Structure formats: structure tokens, C-alpha cells
Amino acid sequence: MDTRTRTPGAQVVGRIAQVLRALSAAMPAGASTTELARAAGLTRPTAHRLLSALADEGFVDREPHTGAWLLGPELYLMGVVAADRYDVTEIARTHVAALASATGESAFFSVRRGHETVCLERQDGSFPIRSFVLHEGKRFPLGVASAGLAILSYLPPAAVDSYLAEARLASEYGQEHSETEIRERIAETRRAGYAVNPGLIVPGSWGLGAAVFSRTGQPAWALTLTGVESRFSPERIPELGRLLLEHAHRLTEQLALR
Asked: Mean pLDDT, the chain, as a whole number?
């Protein structure tokens, strides 16, 4: 049962949440009203009304020259307060930096949030050609990109079945994200221990991901590496995967002691 239909005001709160998530994914450049309306699945007038109300309260801001909407100071202040309870980025940052330094690739730390992953940290390595598919605040559904595939692969089977029955990822991300294809990649991820994204989002941009687990044994975060296809040769992938798993294991142990 969807409890939002029984909670007064839930529809408005849900729409505000959709707008803020869409805006978060568009940072740091921000986005126009039309872009945010499209991403949130709202009409432009509705999106503009919500954004204007949020701006009045300081939750969003507007760049005066371009008209782009940005996250506002009130969200920053709330985030600082919430960080003591939720933020593990400071602990993960050492591992992200070490992966970038050791491999020369771009390294990331992402968190699971419901049926999505959200990128929290990025560190670029020394290799001059980089992939810009992923950045801080970028969201992908579970099963899409290496972080989402790594996390989905280690969820309980019943949770995987329920999610894939409703996700309909192929309609947005292509037939390579059909349920059959994702299940095959889940099986391969479990065999290898790490997930591989062979340029399925942007051709030529590859990624590897390893799940990081909570105290209860649930995949709650992921460490990932991305780069151009030539840097992810069949000979090198196992080496990169071993490094990812090593850091993911150590980070899991650290977070369990937090």
C-alpha cells in the first residue's frame, strides 16, 4: 500500500522531493525550470511554483545571469547538521584518493538511497583522458552503472526480484538494461566479486564497482573506477577489480567500527 495517498499533503511533499533530487543531480551547474520539470516529471508551471516557494525559504537559489536554479544555503546548513549521523564520506575519501592514485583513473564513492545510487565523492587520477559520466550528486537507478550494479547484485534475491519486476530500465537506458541482461550481469558480478560496466551508458566509458557493506551485511555504498575503454583491457580488469575489492573490504571494516 502506498501510504502517501493517506497522508495529507504527501503529494506536495513528494513533488518538492522530486524537484530537489533533480536539482541535486544537476549540480554544480544547476538547471533551468524546464529541465527540472522534465527530470521531475512535472509540468513547467508546477515546477516553477515549487522552485519559487523553495527560493523564498532559502532551499534553492537562482543564478541571476543565466537563470539556472541551484541548491540553496538552507540545504547546506541542514546537511552540515545531518552529516554527524549520516556522512561517511570523510572515512571513504582516503580510499577514493588511494584508488585514483594507484590506477590513474577517476575513483568514486556512492551511497544507496532507496532504488538509486548517489555519487558523494570523486577523485581524478593522473591519466589525462577522463570520463565525466559520474560526478558528485549524480544519481543512477540500481542496476545502472557499476555502483548500482555492484549494490543490486548483493541485495537479497527477493529484493532483486521485486525491484527488477518494476524498474523498467530498458525503456530509459536501452535494451542492454533489460531484466535478462541485468540478471546476467548480476551473476557475473557475484562470480567476480566486482561489477563491470562495459560502456553501457556512454560508449567508450567503462567502469568497475565494488559494494561496501553496512554492519548488518547490506550493500549500502560502492567504490568505483571509471575511464576510457582502452584503459580497461581484459588483462587489466582483474587487477583493477582486486584493488577495488581490497579497498571495499577495508572500508567495510572501518564503517563497522564507526
From this structure: 89
